[in-house]
Design brief:
The protein is of the alpha/beta class. The protein has 3 domains: 51 residues, no CATH class; 92 residues, N-(1-d-carboxylethyl)-l-norvaline Dehydrogenase, domain 2 (Orthogonal Bundle), CATH 1.10.1040; 150 residues, NAD(P)-binding Rossmann-like Domain (Rossmann fold). Helix content is 44%, strand content 12%. It has a 6-stranded parallel beta sheet. Strands 1-2-3 form a 3-stranded mixed beta sheet, sandwiched between helices. The radius of gyration is 21 Å and the shape is elongated.
Length: 300
Amino acid sequence: MSDSNLGKEGSALADFMRPDRIVVGADDERAVLLMRALYAPFVRNHDRLLVMDVRSAEFTKYAANSMLATRISFMNEMALLAERIGADIELVRKGIGSDPRIGYQFLYSGAGYGGSCFPKDVRALRSMGRAAGLELGVLAAVEAANTRQKQVLVDKVVHRFGENLSGLQFAVWGLTFKPNTDDMREAPSRVIIEGLIRRGARIKAYDPVAVTEARRLLGNLPGLEFASSQSEALEGSDALVIVTEWKEFKSPEFDAISRVLRNPVIFDGRNLYEPELMASFGIEYHGIGRGVSEFSASNS
């Protein structure tokens, strides 16, 4: 078993060419020699190949992804608390990330994790634990926190517009669980769109690459249509919901957003923008955990 860099969807080629480590699980010496020869050109400057037994290599893969999922769920819970007490999770992220024991990676709060690896591997470890007679409480909490986090944007919309969303249309930017892929497996967008439609809303969704996949998965939902551009998604919409942090969403024309939306309101599930900047454009901004400086139309 080999797992180069333990895999990041959307950057497989780069990870293979420039791995930070290569975990090889094998119980055959010849197989180990072949793997060393295969990876030798990619680790010439620094040997990053870790050889271990098959069970430990498999466990390493599951544990690494589960650790990252844990960091994400922890930060998402901290974001919920930050909103309640009036702290700004982005400042908190910088503060704790500057601690070298913690670092900055996977400290971004958002709309929850998805994809094929994190959910599957967390469940796999929990299943291993149960088979071994051990309930892994931390990972149970990680799953529960992630399930709750996927509802956060829906809750924000309901808090702002009411439980009955009939007659309202929302633009949704981003359908994939992360940028640079068309993967929508366990993507937060699916939960968010279904939650809004269930309350009577209509959705106009846009994603740079995943519309075909979205039609396959969600095409039968009443009230859902797909736009061919991010600007088209705004047309006729009452507010904008950002779910995936695609690069093209990071620097939009805020004047156009404010002008085209029926209500200049953004629900930002990835904290792409600064609340003070949004206020300067007259946009009511709801991020994740931006308790200190969220702009409300009531104080404009």
